[in-house]
Amino acid sequence: MGLPAYDLTGRTAFVTGAGSGIGRATAVLLAEAGATVHCADVDEQGLHETATLIKDQGGTALGHPLDVTDRARLQQAVASCGRLDVMAAVAGIMHSSPVLETLDEDLDRVLNVNFKGVLYACQEAARSMIENGVRGSVVTMASGAIDSGGPGLLCYSAAKAAVVQLTKTLATEAGPHGIRVNAVAPGWIRTPMTDRHGERQAHTEAFMARLSPLGRVGEPEDIAHAVLYLASDASAFTTGQILRPNGGVAMPW
Ligand code: NAP
């Protein structure tokens, strides 16, 4: 590879949510950069497809069918990596309900997957890196919802705001071990998650594209490149940061 700072040859990465969308694009790109990639997801078929994509391009992928809210299973999967250099905690779910109609079970489900699932991944990764003396990188997945909120987004944006605080706090605690912790907060990205918005999707996509100075929504690869930057030595002096690949939608202009 011509750019050594981005070269992950000889490194091991773990990607949650690797069976679809942003997680899949991230797993594929990290493998292209040379990493051995451990892919985790609840969706076994999606996992299989991602692993096949990586192997077809000559990379190395291992699959871990698991739910990120199952701490014991996640612990076992991370332990099976041996030395771990990169954790990309991407798995997440969308939920929309007005505040006055939000049920306890909605809040619990979204916080469990989108916050606790990320917390467990971060904890297992940081423990592994400290034990093995690895000066690794942890990348979490927040969202543009941390800046904008929006009707119906209480559960989702609260969980993503918690991910930001986790990222900043762990960055301060793990920094002395040489471990960097950063978040990516994507704007509207075309993935199966956003596709599930159904008929609202075309309208929202057009709206989001109009808000961007670039006049388009994002693709999963746009976010994968941000994760690669944060995972690699290219960002060696970057920690506790929130990177916003959002087409400039949050920029006052
Ligand atoms: P996606 O296409 O739905 O992919 C998410 C993957 O995570 C799916 O394979 C999903 O499986 C899996 N997953 C869900 N719950 C899980 C669990 N408990 N344990 C393990 N895997 C689980 O979504 P995406 O758009 O790529 O989103 C990826 C991340 O980016 C999420 O954290 C999301 O909040 C964040 N994000 C997305 C956007 C966007 O515009 N797309 C914007 C900002 C932030 P199932 O399909 O079976 O549920």
List the helices and strands and how they pair.
Blueprint: E1 12-16, H1 21-32, E2 36-41, H2 44-56, E3 60-65, H3 71-79, E4 86-89, H4 104-131, E5 137-141, H5 145-148, H6 154-174, E6 180-184, H7 192-195, H8 199-211, H9 220-231, E7 242-243
Parallel strand pairs: 1-2, 1-4, 2-3, 4-5, 5-6, 6-7
Helix pairs in contact: 1-2, 1-9, 3-4, 4-6
The chain binds NADP nicotinamide-adenine-dinucleotide phosphate.
NADP nicotinamide-adenine-dinucleotide phosphate binds at residues 16-17, 19-23, 41-43, 46, 67-69, 90-93, 113, 117, 141, 143-144, 186, 188-189, 191-194.
Family: Belongs to the short-chain dehydrogenases/reductases (SDR) family.
Protein name: 3-oxoacyl-ACP reductase
Keywords: Oxidoreductase
Structural account:
By secondary structure, the chain is an alpha/beta fold. The protein has one domain: 3-Layer(aba) Sandwich (Rossmann fold), CATH 3.40.50. Helices cover 46% and strands 13% of the residues. It contains nine helices and seven strands. It has a seven-stranded parallel sheet, with helices on both faces. Strand 4, helix 4 (104-131) and strand 5 (137-141) form a beta-alpha-beta unit. 47% of the residues are buried.
Concise account of the structure shown:
This is 3-oxoacyl-ACP reductase. The chain is an alpha/beta fold. Helices cover 46% and strands 13% of the residues.
Task: Name its key features.
7 strands, oxidoreductase, 9 helices, 253 residues, binds NADP nicotinamide-adenine-dinucleotide phosphate, NAD(P)-bd_dom_sf, 46% helix, alpha/beta, Rossmann fold, 7-stranded parallel beta sheet
